[in-house]
Design brief:
The protein is α/β, with parallel strands linked by helices. The protein has two domains: 160 residues, Rossmann fold, CATH 3.40.50.1370; 166 residues, Aspartate/ornithine carbamoyltransferase (Rossmann fold), CATH 3.40.50. The strands form three sheets. Strands 9-8-7-10-11 form a five-stranded parallel β-sheet. The protein starts with 5 loop residues before the first helix and ends with a helix. Bound molecules: phosphoric acid mono(formamide)ester. The site of phosphoric acid mono(formamide)ester has 9 residues, from α3.
Length: 346
């Protein structure tokens, strides 16, 4: 019954999905349109093969959408959670494994690659060491040890499946030409320090489409300068721009899309307790109806899960300009579109 499709046995170097730019601006738009067609009733193309997902961190949307999308396109999906019925993994290269971890990630990945045609992994940032997080070591171990397409289910730096669903949402509401549209990515309050993969991805995905992006955040909550410079370069190439603001009201004026998200400051690595005290005094960055009224009728986006009445109010989240649940639904259709392409080749 099984056996990898011919396209999956071809060299896979260019076929990973790691930061969501792999197919370029037009390729991503093509996937977004395909996802919207699937949502409207188009039949998924049946491919065949086996997909393994490995979740080092919790998930609702990614877990459900990937499994359902895989089933829909004919991929058998096995889900593994290290440490929960699966051996705990050692992830440090060259480690002397005399601690609790029973299996090295290098061995686990090679074994899964022997069995499966596509491997997918979720591994968040540790938020203690910026060099470590930039290296994205767990994701990189999958790339290094498996001669198979690798799909990131959110890594320390990027969340490309979320970026694809975000792009499909923009296309759904704004039409196929996103170039020149105004998107504001605004920092939001939160009781915990959070990784930057989602805001990094919003910035990168919007820049790739040539949108005019304003990144708004309080002092000290800056994004990784390498991410910002890469996004700025992409935006300029595509006819867009990246600007910065520290005024949450001015930043949303004229925006067609507002993405609210909390994140930890790049310059706060190693100073999280200090950052927590500052964060506690920034409740007025919560997205309210009053602030949304300053936009050009913008849709409100958030990747979910969201802390209601901290990040955004109930009135905004349940109001007519909230796109958050639609985007979550599009996670399934966009993943279906991606898996079709990944198996057939690009
Ligand atoms: N947005 C998102 O990735 O949700 P989960 O963490 O629940 O998968």
């Amino acid at each position: 019954m099984y056996g990898p499709p011919a396209s999956l046995t071809a060299p896979t170097r260019a076929r990973h999905w790691l930061d969501g730019t792999e197919l370029g601006r037009d390729g991503i738009l093509g996937l977004a349109h395909r996802a919207l067609a699937l949502r409207s009733g188009a039949q998924p193309r049946k491919v065949r093969g086996r997909l393994a997902t490995v979740f080092f961190n919790p998930s609702l949307r990614t877990r459900a959408s990937v499994e359902l999308a895989a089933q829909a396109v004919g991929l058998h999906c096995v889900e593994l959670v290290p440490g929960q019925g699966v051996w705990g993994f050692e992830t440090r290269p060259g480690a002397v494994m005399d601690g609790t971890a029973a299996e090295h990630i290098a061995d686990a990945v090679r074994v899964l690659a022997e069995m499966c045609d596509i491997l997918a992994v979720r591994s968040f940032a540790g938020l203690t060491d910026p060099v470590e997080d930039r290296a994205d070591r767990v994701l990189q171990a999958f790339v290094d040890h498996a001669d198979r397409p690798i799909v990131s289910l959110e890594s320390a730096r990027w969340h490309p499946l979320q970026g694809l669903a975000d792009t499909a949402t923009w296309v759904s509401h704004l039409g196929g030409e996103l170039r020149g549209r105004r998107l504001t990515l605004t920092w939001a309050p939160h009781p915990k320090a959070l990784p930057t993969a989602v805001p990094n991805q919003v910035l990168l995905s919007a820049a790739l489409q040539g949108m005019h992006v304003t990144v708004a955040h309080p002092e000290g909550f800056d994004l990784d300068p390498l991410v910002v410079s890469r996004a700025t370069e992409l935006a300029v190439q595509s006819g867009g721009s990246v600007q910065h603001s520290s005024d949450p009201d001015a930043a949303v004026e004229g925006a067609s899309v507002v993405v609210a998200k909390s994140w930890s400051g790049w310059s706060g690595y190693g100073r999280r307790e200090e950052e927590a005290k500052v964060r506690a005094g920034l409740g007025d960055w919560c997205m309210t109806e009053e602030r949304m009224a300053k936009t050009s009728g913008a849709g409100l986006m958030h990747c979910l899960p969201i802390r209601r009445n901290v990040v955004a109010t109930d009135a905004v989240l349940d109001g007519p300009h909230s796109w958050v649940h639609e985007t979550a639904g599009l996670r399934m259709w966009t993943t279906m579109a991606l898996l079709e392409r990944l198996v057939e080749g690009w």
